[in-house]
Amino acid sequence: MSHIGAALARREDIRLAQWAPPGDMDPRVQYAATPNEAEWLAMLMRRGGISHWLRSRPASGAMAAWKLTRMLRSAYRRLDDNIDLYHVNWLQCALPLPANGKPALITVLGNDMRLLRLPGMHAALRRTMRGRNVAICPNASWMETPLREAFGDRAAIAPVPFGIDPRWYAIPRSAEALRRPLRWLAVTRLTANKLGSLFQWSEPLFRDGRRELHLFGPMQEQLDIPSWVHYHGSATPEQLANEWFPGAQGLITLSRHAEGRPQVMLEAMASALPIVASRMPAHADIVANGVTGSLCDTPQDYADALVSLEDPATHLRMGMAARAWAAREIGTWDDCAARYVRVYRQLLEQPVHG
């Protein structure tokens, strides 16, 4: 959200009011949360976000979701006279939109697809969309078909990929920079579904110390981390860009979680890091098997992928192909902002959808 807000604020044709947790924000952005709302949103972020709260403590998480919805409804009404269009991140945040006919762009991540399984959610969202122009913008094309089936008669379905900070494209890559022992990275929230088969498949390949598995991310479920895994906790983008990505063999993700288009994978590809990933729609949408990385169904696939990418020539070839794909298909956050602005204009110029 911070990157999107900053990119939109850099444009001369946008005046942006942003309702979000407090944090670094472009001075051209009007911060729209009240002090009480900002304090509560900061607490929500410390709890890992509303999705994590709902997963880990369903009862109190449901109360938190209800409170978040009430706050959003208040913010939408408070800002009503000063806006032309709503840019709503995530489907659930569109539920309290006021019935004022103003157009809305709604972004969708992988978690939102799970939300649509809840009883009554389709009907509630369709009611929110009534009488206004709506564009539903998933950040990955694999979500386009189910969203079109659910809402195509009420909204335009227009995938809009997020951008990538230019710092990642600037990371140098060379065979000489690769470390010994060979360093592989996994950057993820630590839950059973996000880790998937990482520990089981990796143990016979990493336990002898010829390779190192370095794991980064917040512990969101109580999990036992094997002693041969180098767990560092959360890492800042600066730490990853400056200390870890330049000398790594590649990024590993064996997630079973409902993904959209994982941002850390895009940043790794822009850094010319090949990807080794579980075969699932979100990963296949990004990784071209054998071209920019490897998609794995079995432990043997995984072992073969690591061995292949530890060849310096293969590593550089796939890494540079990954960087070229990211530059061509994703670009920067300014490119992302331009994609959104094109959708804004279409929503504002077309006749109101019934």
Task: Explain what you see.
The protein has 354 residues and is an alpha/beta fold. 44% of the residues lie in helices and 13% in strands. The chain has 16 helices and twelve strands. It has helices spanning 2-9, 35-46, 50-56, 58-78, 110-115, 121-129, 144-151, 166-169, 192-195, 198-206, 237-244, 263-270, 281-284, 299-309, 312-329, 333-349, and strands at residues 17-18, 30-31, 86-89, 104-108, 134-138, 156-157, 182-187, 211-216, 229-231, 250-253, 275-278, 293-296. Strands 9-8-7-10-11-12 form a six-stranded parallel sheet, sandwiched between helices. The chain has a four-stranded parallel sheet with strand order 3-4-5-6, with helices on both faces. Strand 5 (134-138), helix 7 and strand 6 (156-157) form a beta-alpha-beta unit. Helix 1 packs across helix 16. The radius of gyration is 21 Å and the shape is globular.
**How would you sum up the global shape?**
globular
Which class do the helix and strand fractions yield? alpha/beta
CATH architecture heading of the largest domain = 3-Layer(aba) Sandwich
Q: Portion of residues in helices?
A: 40-55%
What is the gyration radius calculated from CA atoms?
Answer: 21 Å
Q: How far is the N terminus from the C terminus? A: 30 Å
Report the portion of residues in β strands.
5-15%
Q: What's the number of domains? A: 2
How do the strands line up in the largest sheet?
9-8-7-10-11-12
* CATH fold descriptor of the largest domain: Rossmann fold
SS summary, helix count: 16
What is the string of SSEs from the N terminus onward?
Answer: HEEHHHEEHHEHEHEHHEEHEHEHEHHH
Low-confidence stretches: none
CATH C-level of the largest domain:
Alpha Beta
Number of E-state strands: 12
Mind summarizing the main beta sheet? 6 strands, parallel
The residue-averaged pLDDT reads 92
